[in-house]
């Protein structure tokens, strides 16, 4: 199982000791059989702890949400988002006025979300940071980012529909949420370079032909 999941045996034993990995089927006093569902669970645990940076306690919360058939997908996604935010956020709180502005921008687009979603503070801190350099992001600027975020979010959720197990969905939730940020940032930088040529075209040198 450890070999198929691509993790050291010591890691599997650690997951078992911490109560993250369910027991296999004991076929003899010193033999335990594990199936595909255990391999998938080990991959999920690794994603939660290593890629997501979650604590053991937070990982247990996400796994419990993924295992509960009564928990809607949106709620399970929320558990994962909050767990990751709690494990990573050390910044100071944004201003209340900026938080209200982010919430208003989201509601203007008809988004259904809770006011304690960690994305509110993340976005508000960014807007506060822009203000420190004298750029008070106008409504059109925020709306452009909201449109791009909406498109990316739809892609994320469509990707989840391609998974056929609770562990597979939870794994993609966490890994996709963590790695989606640098993916978005990388593509944005490429787009910025391209857009620069349109908004700030290079001046032709004297005598240069078109």
Walk me through the topology.
Elements: H1 2-5, H2 9-17, E1 25-28, E2 31-33, H3 36-51, H4 56-67, H5 73-88, H6 96-108, H7 118-131, H8 139-160, H9 166-199
Antiparallel strand pairs: 1-2
Helix pairs in contact: 3-4, 3-9, 4-5, 4-9, 5-9, 6-7, 8-9
Main sheet characteristics:
2 strands, antiparallel
Total beta strands: 2
Could you estimate the helical fraction of the residues in percent? Answer: 55-70%
Reading the helices and strands in chain order gives: HHEEHHHHHHH
The helix/strand class is mainly alpha
Strand order of the largest sheet: 1-2
> Alpha-carbon distance between the termini?
63 Å
Shape: elongated
Q: Report the radius of gyration as a whole number of Å.
A: 22 Å
Question: What would the keywords be for this entry?
Answer:
mainly alpha; single chain; two-stranded antiparallel ribbon
Summarize the structure.
This protein has 9 helices and 2 strands, in the order ααββααααααα. With 210 residues, it is mainly alpha-helical. It has one domain.
């Amino acid at each position: 199982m450890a070999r198929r999941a691509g993790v050291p045996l010591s890691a599997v034993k650690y997951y078992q000791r911490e109560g993250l990995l369910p027991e296999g089927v004991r076929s003899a006093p010193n033999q335990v059989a594990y199936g595909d569902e255990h391999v998938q669970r080990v991959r999920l645990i690794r994603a939660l702890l290593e890629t997501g940076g979650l604590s053991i306690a937070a990982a247990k919360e996400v796994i419990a949400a993924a295992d509960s058939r009564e928990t809607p997908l949106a709620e399970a996604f929320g558990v994962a988002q909050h767990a990751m935010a709690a494990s990573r956020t050390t910044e100071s709180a944004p201003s209340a006025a900026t938080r209200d502005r982010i919430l208003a921008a989201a509601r203007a687009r008809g988004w259904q979300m809770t006011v304690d979603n960690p994305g509110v503070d993340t976005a508000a801190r960014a807007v506060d940071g822009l203000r420190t350099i004298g750029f008070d992001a106008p409504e059109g600027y925020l709306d452009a980012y909201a449109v791009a975020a909406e498109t990316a979010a739809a892609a994320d959720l469509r990707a989840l529909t391609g998974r056929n197990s609770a562990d597979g969905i939870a794994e993609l939730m966490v890994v996709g949420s963590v790695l989606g940020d640098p993916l978005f940032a990388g593509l944005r930088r490429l787009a910025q370079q391209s857009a620069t040529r349109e908004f700030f075209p290079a001046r032709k040198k004297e005598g240069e032909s078109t």
